[in-house]
Amino acid sequence: MTVEFEAIGVVGGGQMGSGIAQLGLVHGLRVYLLDSDAQALARASKSISMSIQRLVSKGNISEADASAALQRLHCTSKLEEMKDCDLIVEAIVESEEIKKKLFIELDRISKASAILASNTSSISITRLASATNRPAQVVIGMHFMNPPPIMKLVEIIQGAQTSDETFLATKALAQRFGKTVICSQDYSGFIVNRILMPMINEAFYALYTGVATKEDIDTGMKLGTNHPMGPLELADFIGLDVCVSIMRVLQAGLGDAKYIPCPLLVQYVDAGRLGRKQGLGVYSYHKLPELAKS
Ligand code: NAI
């Protein structure tokens, strides 16, 4: 199957979906972006536009290309508008049940040759694919890293029935976006989160059991192991809710108690501390009120 990609659909306009949409736009595709929350969709459109403007100020693309890219963006509230898309990738909440419901809808509205992809961090592609009636080979994991326009990697996951043709077409699209592709078998957490999340969880245990302060845990891992961000800082960046969801998928899928999310991590999420996207996580991102000028 050789796919000439012209239009893609992105469902979910949060941190990941808006970044994936931006990649499609700057690489010449028409992009249909949908979010069930109208405000989130408006935020996504604004952040894409600002980000593309930044590319212009840095001299990475011309004004004319930026304006053409933004004209190719169609924000919509109707899935049906994605009916001609060559690939539809979902980046909605990390819940198997909700993603399955979406795949049933995507299966219904998309053209038969469309590739249906999931940006899931950890959920079984085989089970997501099984929610659809179309030939199972059209569902694949296309896992971008955060933030998608910057990070160089895309992890591609073939479900039990995903064909090699679908894999090759998806890989070609990721490469068109300038990404390096790695390929994972369909086991919980795939490659990156299978290794990353237990480390983040352990950092929460270190904080929970009073081994050190959050700053020292992060500095230890940054300077001691040459990571660009400490694990707690990274958890805030990913979203603490997303981290808990991934740990639960690892726990359920791999059946080992070592994947139980740390009680402190769970408590932060229960308290609504979701990380950077919401202003408070392990760290606070609220701007301090400016002192009144005298
Ligand atoms: P987010 O919370 O920033 O965005 C999710 C968006 O999906 C929200 O705007 C929400 O309104 C929308 N949404 C939820 N249910 C929907 C539905 N049924 N239909 C349409 N829109 C819906 O989440 P984020 O961080 O962008 O994550 C999205 C997906 O990407 C998850 O599966 C996550 O595991 C995965 N992912 C996240 C990474 C991260 O660092 N945050 C990295 C790689 C993958």
TrEMBL record:
Gene3D superfamilies: N-(1-d-carboxylethyl)-l-norvaline Dehydrogenase, domain 2 (1.10.1040.10), NAD(P)-binding Rossmann-like Domain (3.40.50.720). It holds the Pfam family 3HCDH. Signal peptide: none annotated. Pathway: Lipid metabolism; fatty acid beta-oxidation. The record marks 143 as: Important for catalytic activity. GO terms for molecular function: enoyl-CoA hydratase activity; NAD+ binding; oxidoreductase activity, acting on the CH-OH group of donors, NAD or NADP as acceptor. CoA binds at residues 51, 58, 121. It catalyses: a (3S)-3-hydroxyacyl-CoA = a (2E)-enoyl-CoA + H2O; a 4-saturated-(3S)-3-hydroxyacyl-CoA = a (3E)-enoyl-CoA + H2O. NAD(+) binds at residues 12-17, 35, 94, 99, 121, 146, 277. GO terms for biological process: fatty acid metabolic process. InterPro entries: 3-OHacyl-CoA_DH, 3-OHacyl-CoA_DH_CS, 3-OHacyl-CoA_DH_NAD-bd, 3HC_DH_C, 6-PGluconate_DH-like_C_sf, 6PGD_dom2, NAD(P)-bd_dom_sf. The keyword NAD applies. Residues 189-285 form the 3-hydroxyacyl-CoA dehydrogenase C-terminal domain. Keywords: NAD, Oxidoreductase. It comes from the Eukaryota. Residues 8-186 form the 3-hydroxyacyl-CoA dehydrogenase NAD binding domain. Belongs to the 3-hydroxyacyl-CoA dehydrogenase family. In the central section; belongs to the 3-hydroxyacyl-CoA dehydrogenase family. PANTHER family: 3-HYDROXYACYL-COA DEHYDROGENASE FAMILY PROTEIN, 3-HYDROXYBUTYRYL-COA DEHYDROGENASE. This is 3-hydroxybutyryl-CoA dehydrogenase. It comes from Trapa natans.
